[in-house]
Amino acid sequence: MTVADELTPATPEETEEPIKQRKNGLYPGVSDELAENMKSGWADTELHDLKPVAQAAETAGRRAALSARFPGERLVIPAGHLKTRSNDTEYPFRASVEYAYLTGNQTEDGVLVLEPTADGHRATIYLLPRSDRENGEFWLSGQGELWVGRRHSLAEAEQLYGIPASDVRELPEQLKEATGPVRVVRGFDAGLESALHDKVTAERDEELRVFLSETRLVKDTFEIGELQKAVDSTVRGFEDVVKVLDKAEATSERYIEGTFFLRARVEGNDVGYGSICAAGPHACTLHWVRNDGPVRSGDLLLLDAGVETHTYYTADVTRTLPVDGTYSEIQKKIYDAVYEAQEAGIAAVKPGAKYRDFHDAAQRVLTEKLVEWGLVEGPVERVLELGLQRRWTLHGTGHMLGMDVHDCAAARVETYVDGTLEPGMVLTVEPGLYFQADDLTVPEEYRGIGVRIEDDILVTEDGNRNLSAGLPRRSDEVEAWMAALKG
């Protein structure tokens, strides 16, 4: 950071007020002469003839479906605001999925409003316009153009997103005066929720959130293409990691995390979730994201990571790799069992199947192995009925995937886990076995070994397609792949 820190960022509501100074800024103020000087002498940078964003046709169709579901009602979908990381620094912004899904826009403070009309809805995207040069916002505000980069003008936004654009600073007052039924996606804009507090109900707003979650269960062609893009970048990220395992051994799991993150930032927007770079017994901690442990030859590395594309679609892939390139006998035994379970799970993914089928198929194989190895007393049906295998399998075998790594989470149970698979759905299949380092119920040779294999599976008209098939899964293929990359 540099001396930009001298002046306090202005919120959208503050931009008509004098820009506040920081308590400990080095400049006591702005002279009238400097303020006047900064108003003029700037070239016109307005962008013309912009092309619509790639998903503009899809977002228009999604808004049409939303309009049809809630006729006669005003619908308010906010992007959200910057969140403070510490003091006056913010986390990187990520718009709400609901907003990005319906608009293609990803800027903070935006709001999509669907105003009811006689034959549907009129959509308006409310955004902050270019930062003001007349009042000095563009150079005095911490969120001004000279500090964080230019925003699109409202005219530019209309070209990009195909939606009429207005100044978001005027929206709260407009909504206070709104009449008729209103729904808002909650949790992203407290100011809007306050403006609408006497016009909305939690139950009605939840119906809107559920609909927007369920409409994403089946992906369109654009979304499937973006997910494949995310997976392809993720495959390259895994290859990057294998090539630097010697450097990770010399440092820590952080080297693996940083290596994958570089690929995510170069080819995408970010990682889709905190990368799990779990070496040795850390592989038994399902969401090990501290990534500060040692990487040792002879141990396994469980790498669970995904690149997020510029349009927010994320991959979610896991491989469990021998750090030195070769599985030991016990590691291979456990790995092959998980692979067999995953094969059964993937085979159960097809149109018309129950969503739970792939989970049940994978859990049955893992349970059979646990009984066969003498780790739990059979018969298999008894173990499954009582859920005893869960001591070592722990989690569900997969989830929907899309703009969220755990996509469509607000969908109703009857349409998600109790639902039926359809072409266009994308889900993960990720069985695992985890033998904790302190688990005295298993032989010592098992302890500290964790294995998960995860792939991203598209339901097709005649079965499924493994989007992440570019990464080997079978143990011998993994060893050969690693040897080739290291060689």
UniProtKB/TrEMBL annotation:
Region (Disordered): 1-26
Pfam families tied to this protein: AMP_N (PF05195), Peptidase_M24 (PF00557)
Ranges of compositional bias, category Low complexity: 1-12
Catalytically driven reaction(s): Release of any N-terminal amino acid, including proline, that is linked to proline, even from a dipeptide or tripeptide
Domain of life the protein comes from: Bacteria
GO cellular component entries: cytosol
GO MF annotation terms: manganese ion binding; metalloaminopeptidase activity
Protein name from the UniProt record: Xaa-Pro aminopeptidase
